[in-house]
Write a structure and sequence with these properties.
alpha+beta; paralog of FGE (formylglycine-generating enzyme); 4-stranded antiparallel sheet; 8 helices; 9 strands; 25% helix; 12% strand
């Protein structure tokens, strides 16, 4: 593990190897885009941010480059990013271009989809690398009180109906959902999560995977080279399928960059 002298984050060395990418056997929560499983060879090792990029790291980047401050509130008034007053929170709400610019500034790049999953699995073959509450923030445990998010989600289907759910489930960017319409999405499911205080949690508080990476499951969406990646836990603190304005960043860097001492990176909503 090494520290990046530019952004101050710790990076973990991910060795080359091979793995089966996609939906793990017996995992009922996979999307069609994750099927079928297929072998992937990672021919070169790389450095990966030990945690998602934090608010504190983003402030360093912003002060050094003049980049814009990330949004401080969501559509229901929840306080985020610098407005939340906690530098250990993951920085959320950046676009893919903003995430890419941050990684380049830090001396790295966004990981490919294959690299991201390879690093997240860290040699495991199942859907998770440990007991869920011990390794991830998700709908049940990321609010003021513990809730049964699966039951709430099922109730939303019963209330709103399958046809309407299909129209509102993949709502895209949170920015296209207004304050007036958001409580109605999924029968008020997301509204209930917000009312319970479900929100991003500080990085590094859950157990790491075998390669010492934190928060690779749950909490926030994470950008990859080709788009957003939800750490594979359903019913997260926000929505299941938010894409553009809700991602955080976790950078990767190639060995050359690492040897130059400018190698570090982080992940998002």
């Amino acid at each position: 593990m090494k520290a990046n002298v530019k952004d101050g984050q710790s990076y973990v060395w991910i060795p080359p190897g091979s793995f089966e990418m996609g939906c793990s056997p017996g995992d009922s929560e996979c999307g069609d885009e994750e099927k079928p499983m297929h072998w992937v060879i990672i021919t070169k090792g790389f450095w990966m941010g030990q945690t998602p990029a934090t608010v504190g790291v983003w402030k360093k980047y912003r002060n050094a480059t003049g980049a814009a401050e990330l949004g401080g509130r969501d559509i229901l008034g929840r306080i985020l990013n610098e407005n939340a007053g906690n530098d250990a929170l993951p920085a959320v709400g950046m676009t893919w271009d903003e995430a890419t610019s941050y990684c380049e500034w830090s001396g790295g790049r966004l990981p490919t989809e294959s690299e991201w999953e390879y690093a997240a699995r860290a040699g495991t073959t199942g859907a998770r690398y440990g007991a869920l509450d011990g390794i991830a923030w998700y709908g049940d445990n990321s609010g003021r009180e513990r809730i049964d998010s699966a039951a709430l989600h099922a109730h939303a289907y019963a209330v709103q109906g399958t046809a309407q759910i299909a129209q509102t489930r993949d709502v895209g960017p949170v920015s296209i959902v207004t304050t007036a319409t958001f409580p109605k999405v999924l029968g008020g499911y997301y509204q209930k999560l917000f009312e319970n205080g479900n929100a991003p949690r500080p990085v590094g508080l859950k157990l790491p995977n075998a390669w010492n990476l934190y928060d690779v499951l749950g909490d926030v969406w994470q950008w990859t080279e080709i788009g957003a990646r939800l750490t594979p836990i359903p019913r997260s603190h926000l929505t299941r399928r938010v894409r553009r304005r809700r991602a955080i960043d976790r950078c990767a860097a190639d060995p050359v960059s690492a040897r130059q001492g400018t190698f570090v990176y982080p992940v998002g909503t």
